[in-house]
Amino acid sequence: MSDWGPVFIAVVLFVLLSPGLLFQVPGHHRCVEFGNFQTSGASIMVHSLLYFALVCVFLLAVKVHLYLD
Prior knowledge:
Number of helices: 2
Distance between the termini: 6 Å
Helix content: 40-55%
Order of helices and strands: EHEEHE
Number of domains: 1
InterPro entries: DUF3339
Keywords: Membrane, Signal, Transmembrane, Transmembrane helix
Transmembrane segments: 48-68
Structural class: mainly alpha
Protein name: Transmembrane protein
Strand content: 5-15%
Signal peptide: 1-22
Largest sheet: 2 strands, antiparallel
Number of strands: 4
Shape: elongated
């Protein structure tokens, strides 16, 4: 049995927190922009910090596990 929880959480958060896909913080003209498919260095940094924080919360604090046979 292998634990696929960390892999699933990391992939889903990576897709959802890609800058410019669903939202972008900070945006080019506003604080938050939705679905603009553009990115900047500051938004990459903010999204990577959000990704790291959420991965830590889900994997260390919540301890998400998913076992597939």
